[in-house]
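Progress narrative, work stream C.
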Amino acid sequence: MKVYRLYTYEDYMKAIKLLNKGEGITIVSKKLNIPKSTVKGWIYEYKVPWLARWSPEPSKELAYLLGVLIGDGYLHFHAYHYDIELEVKDYEFAETFSKTLAKILDKRYRKIKETR
């Protein structure tokens, strides 16, 4: 059975910093003991390591989001992504949740869709 290594955010950032300094893919690969194909994927195919995509810091906002999701929210799976959805009657509550979610995920806030 083949064992795959999980690369951390630090591994990814070390490679990116070396590449930005002008080091070649082969040299970066050897220095960090990361396969050349993996480094190429990070650069040319924008394949960011799973552990480097998002690692939240514990905060009141994160605790709030998790509590709301457990109570009133759910994940809706599409072909290649998930939507975080919330079923509540209070528009202001949903708007606060959406703004907090945008802050935690470091995304642009989008006005929520009101459905009946």
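Work stream C, second folded protein:
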Amino acid sequence: MAGRARRAAASGAGRGAGGRRIARDVAIASAVAVALVALVALSTVALAAGPSPTPAGGGDVRTNPTAPGLVGDPRVAILGVVLVGILAVALTLVATRIAERR
């Protein structure tokens, strides 16, 4: 008898629509947690600068009129900010929907 009850519990038998939603939400949250752990585990190590001073390349860029100005592509920075904003909105919507069902 215990085996049948265990199989029924594992298969989701006897759960209402709310139980299935909670199980789905837990599965989604688990998948997100696993993805975040994998992202942290696979990220590269950031290397800091050495403790010894290095000579300045071109002097103070605030006073040099021939300074290069912006270094890098500003469009990449803007795209990164927009993507982080979209991700924040999406995660907020998911969190409110999960909280709304409880």
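Helices lie at 2-11, 17-42, 74-101. No further action is required on this item.
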